[in-house]
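Hello,

Following up on my earlier ticket. Below are the two sequence lines again, exactly as submitted.
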Amino acid sequence: MFTENLRRACVAVMCVSLLSVAMPLPAQAAIVTTDRAVALEQRGSYVSTITAALARDDVRSRMVALGVDPATVEARLGGLTDTELATLAERIDNAPAGGDVLAIIGIVFVVLMILEFTGVIDIFKKV
Amino acid sequence: MRTTRGSLWLPPALLLLSWLSGCASVAPLGSALPPGAPARIELLDAPFFPQQDHQCGPSALATVLEASGTAAVPEQLVAEVYLPGREGSLQQELLAAARRRGRLAYVLPEDPGALLAEVEAGRPVLILQNLGIDAHPLWHYAVLIGFDAVRNQVLLRSGRQDRLVMSWQRFEGSWRRGGRWAATMLEPGTLPAQPIALNYLDACAGLEAAGMLDGAASSYAAAADRWPENPLVHLGQGNVAYARGDLRAAVGAYRRGVRLAPADAALRNNLAQALLDSGCAEQALAEAREAAELAQGSALAADVRVTLESAMRATESTGTIESCPDSMAGGDTEQSLSLRDDAGNGTDD
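Thanks for your patience. The regenerated structure is below:
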């Protein structure tokens, strides 16, 4: 008798849990976050829900590899937007990367050096 | 022969060098001064925290946070923003730390005038400089605390120097090489001196992402006053309401946005999701179908498909059972107007 009741209780619990699995959960909601919508408007780039989740995992492991205490890494990720996470997932190793016009400096310098060494110009000895 | 060639190359080389150092191209500080601003300002009350090794980020952040009324000490911030492997702090992490303390971290437009306007409003500005060149960057955070248009120079709290005087030309160059990045810390619900809608909404979204929903709500309310026609404001208000579990307010906000921008797939997608969670599967499906059509071939397509699929599943499984409240079903104006008030007052919780 007792085993019978237990069996019925188990079946009931299983039914309920199966039903709840089948129901759509709010946690799976594909809400477009505000920061992603703003980034789409601002820069024409959009981070999907899946990309954002992958980026979060990526940044978490990169941060730990870069010396962040694993106990605090989750709290640090807490204030970042999906768009920021996607940016960091892409270039945490060389961010902040700014300016483009002055990238020319490096190129100009290298070109001058090459011209100098090949004897086309002679500015470095003269100046 | 060699000598002649060398002297021939000298003038253009010097010209090139002067161009590279940016001597000729930088307009004086005065030309960036906001109309009506005084020629000289120094924020004497701005706090100063001399930096430790590599830790200009925590020091500069502590300065702007404390100036905004949030107690902060660099030692605590180090554990939150310093990235040992990079021997420095990332811009995104500085913003995140400010948001976690309830500040609206507003990234300024890439315009020197906007920096000066913030200082004029009494707020020191966190800036990123590249003190090297692009090929060999030397990233450095400092805080702009004053300017002098007559002498064409700025005042900074920088590193171990509590009052660094720098010529405008040098400052502008290093700031430009740093990507013209600057941020100011605002009290939630207040606007910067020269507000730009997308920058402001981005800052609000940051507070929202950090889970500071009250601060995000009051900031979106300020945005709604300033830019009532901007659909993104209503998306933000809807998302805050949704995060709080207030589905009625969320549906109302998304509907307001859809009325302003009927072709916005993001708003319709979120409206569909909020309706779905409210038990309005039929209405949700209609919105999700609309969203899917609008998002076709766009970056949003994948996310909208998820919503559409769960709306389809919900209509199949609920069948005749429809628990949708009457207030959710329609999008009548009166209902939405009352929801607008709800959303505005939600900040006082």
